[in-house]
């Protein structure tokens, strides 16, 4: 046994790298079927009893989300570079730890649409997936049950369902009703949002009590986080080793199979052997680990005979507009979105790229922050605060980005992390086609706000769009080993026992938040591993 208790597991059947939603669900599924599973997680195991303290700190301007979840600790573990056309703030919305980025995610869980799997066939954009919506639908059903998804049947644009949501949808907010009248005027349909949070007790977790701090922390536990399934995996006998940074995967003498994961803990470096390996590190760290695992047999990086590892880095692009109305919106900060519109999603005019519109529950800038930055005090300050809070309305949305070789994750060999390994370099840009889709969404958003007689104060368009921090497509799946990294079963083309469970295997991005699809693919991956070993 190692000094810090993080020794390798003997006779492991499966080694999973990463304890976010993909790794947690894969590990739990396999452990529940009797396999000896070990999970290696680079980050720490957080004490969830501290979540109320985290909530209180999050409300203070001096604390950001990264600080609450110990990102960028100063030792270089989370270092990265960004050398693309647009700077990519990688650490702004990721968490390394047991539970991964679901520890501070928004909690929106939509299925991809049928067209997302067939963009090349339907629109000549990107590549088709080697699987269809119908192939993934049974796993969507299971993923919704595992996570506890609250949703309704009021979305006329949603793909077909074989079973209802496990929980009822949240009621629309008061500001949603203001948007509803405006949407009726401009002919835009609204509907509820599927959320991975509890409107009623579910799976041992309590009901949402409205703290309003879903990002960066849910103190009540009503919002799903992947440490739920980490704990379930451990109950089934899995071993989870935190603060275990996997530096590389090593292959056997023939180079045909992964033999061990080399990982470093606070007390030393160790090798974890297993019969099968699952890389579940997300869309950036997954390709980085494969590239770090270059060897004589795999000189360009592991599973990279296609050259596609790290290529096609894809995001969702934020689009938004907002302002004020001459009436109270009766909104405290709810913390999550209750209504959206997929009306623009499956169209072709002016662009076939998917667009999802969101009606944000936003009352205005924080009175506490406004007061701290004010030049006046007393009654004058109070009057200003009353005029700047409680009458704001805003719309957001996501626009699909097309995978391109121009956007990719590679290694920056001039910059190293705390273990001396090259850090990821994220190269990111926005294309003209995507800018066109953003402008089209802005037009609809401003039409809705205009129908509300809102005084529009800001718009996020093509020039200042930012990422949604959804990292996808960097180890994409496909039929052929000369253009993709994994097959339709998410097994690496080049290796007998390496699987990837991540949004990195997406082929196109759609415009839907990816976590439900990540979960569905993780469950599918677990089935295939079960078949193989």
What do you see in this structure?
One of its GO terms (molecular function) is oxidoreductase activity, acting on CH-OH group of donors. By secondary structure, this protein is of the alpha/beta class. It has a single domain (14-152, 162-532), classed as FAD/NAD(P)-binding domain, CATH 3.50.50. The chain has 12 helices and 19 strands. The longest helix is centred in the last third of the chain and has 20 residues, at 432-451. The radius of gyration is 23 Å and the shape is globular. The two termini are 28 Å apart. The mean pLDDT is 94.
Reconstruct the topology from this structure.
Elements: E1 14-17, H1 21-32, E2 37-40, H2 51-58, H3 65-68, H4 119-123, H5 133-147, E3 150-151, E4 167-168, H6 174-186, E5 191-192, H7 227-235, E6 239-241, E7 245-251, E8 258-265, E9 268-273, E10 276-279, H8 282-292, E11 316-318, E12 320-324, E13 339-341, E14 355-360, H9 367-372, H10 378-388, E15 392-400, E16 408-416, E17 422-427, H11 432-451, E18 455-460, E19 498-500, H12 515-532
Parallel strand pairs: 1-2, 1-10, 2-6, 3-4, 10-19
Antiparallel strand pairs: 5-13, 7-8, 8-9, 11-15, 12-15, 12-18, 13-14, 14-15, 16-17
Helix pairs in contact: 1-7, 1-12, 5-12, 6-11
Organism: Halorutilus salinus
InterPro entries: 4Fe4S_Fe-S-bd, FAD-dep_OxRdtase, FAD/NAD-bd_sf, GMC_OxRdtase_N, GMC_OxRtase_C, MIP_CS, P2Ox-like
Domain 4Fe-4S ferredoxin-type: 197-228
């Amino acid at each position: 046994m190692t000094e810090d208790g993080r020794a390798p597991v003997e006779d492991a059947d499966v080694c999973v790298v990463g304890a976010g939603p993909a790794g947690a669900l894969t590990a739990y599924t396999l452990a529940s079927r009797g396999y000896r599973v070990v999970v290696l997680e680079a980050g720490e195991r957080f004490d969830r009893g501290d979540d109320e303290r985290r909530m209180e700190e999050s409300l203070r301007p001096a604390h950001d989300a990264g600080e609450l979840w110990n990102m960028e600790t100063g030792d270089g573990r989370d270092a990265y570079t960004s050398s693309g056309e647009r700077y990519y703030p990688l650490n702004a919305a990721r968490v390394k730890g047991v539970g991964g980025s679901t520890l501070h995610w928004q909690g929106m869980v939509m299925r991809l649409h049928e067209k997302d799997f067939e963009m090349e066939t339907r629109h000549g954009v990107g590549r088709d997936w080697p699987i269809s919506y119908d192939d993934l639908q049974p796993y969507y059903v299971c993923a919704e049950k595992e996570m506890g998804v609250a949703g309704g049947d009021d979305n006329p644009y949603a793909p077909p369902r074989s079973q209802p949501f496990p929980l009822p949808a949240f009621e629309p907010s008061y500001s949603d009703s203001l948007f509803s009248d405006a949407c009726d005027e401009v002919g835009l349909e609204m509907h509820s949002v599927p959320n991975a949070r509890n409107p009623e007790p579910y799976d041992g977790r309590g009901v949402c009590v409205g703290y309003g701090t879903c990002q960066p922390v849910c103190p009540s536990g009503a919002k799903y986080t992947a440490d739920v399934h980490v704990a379930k995996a451990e109950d089934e006998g899995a071993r989870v080793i935190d603060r275990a940074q996997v530096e590389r995967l090593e292959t056997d003498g023939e180079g045909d199979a992964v033999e061990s994961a080399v990982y470093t803990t606070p007390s030393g470096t160790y090798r974890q052997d297993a019969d099968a390996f699952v890389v579940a590190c997300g869309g950036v760290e997954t390709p980085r680990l494969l590239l770090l695992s270059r060897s004589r047999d795999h000189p360009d990086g592991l599973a990279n005979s296609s050259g596609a590892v790290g290529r096609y880095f894809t995001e969702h692009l934020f689009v938004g507009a907002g302002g004020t109305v001459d009436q109270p919106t009766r909104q405290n900060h709810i913390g999550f979105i209750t209504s959206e519109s997929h009306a623009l999603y499956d169209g072709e005019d002016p662009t076939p790229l998917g667009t999802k519109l969101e009606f944000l529950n936003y009352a205005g800038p924080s009175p506490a922050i406004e007061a701290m930055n004010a030049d006046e005090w007393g009654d004058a300050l109070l009057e200003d605060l009353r005029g700047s809070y409680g009458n704001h309305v805003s719309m957001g949305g996501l626009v699909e980005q097309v995978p391109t070789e121009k956007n990719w994750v590679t290694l920056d060999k001039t910059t190293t992390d705390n273990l001396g390994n090259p850090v990821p370099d994220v190269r990111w840009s926005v294309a003209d086609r995507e800018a066109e889709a953003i402008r089209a969404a802005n037009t609809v958003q401003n039409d809705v706000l205009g129908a509300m007689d809102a005084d529009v104060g800001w718009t996020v368009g093509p020039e200042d769009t930012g990422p949604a921090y959804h990292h996808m497509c960097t180890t994409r799946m496909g039929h052929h080993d000369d253009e993709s990294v994994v097959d339709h079963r998410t097994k690496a083309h080049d290796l007998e026992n390496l699987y990837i469970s991540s949004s990195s295997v997406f082929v196109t991005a759609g415009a839907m938040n990816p976590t439900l699809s990540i979960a569905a693919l993780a469950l599918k991956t677990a089935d295939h591993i079960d078949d193989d070993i």
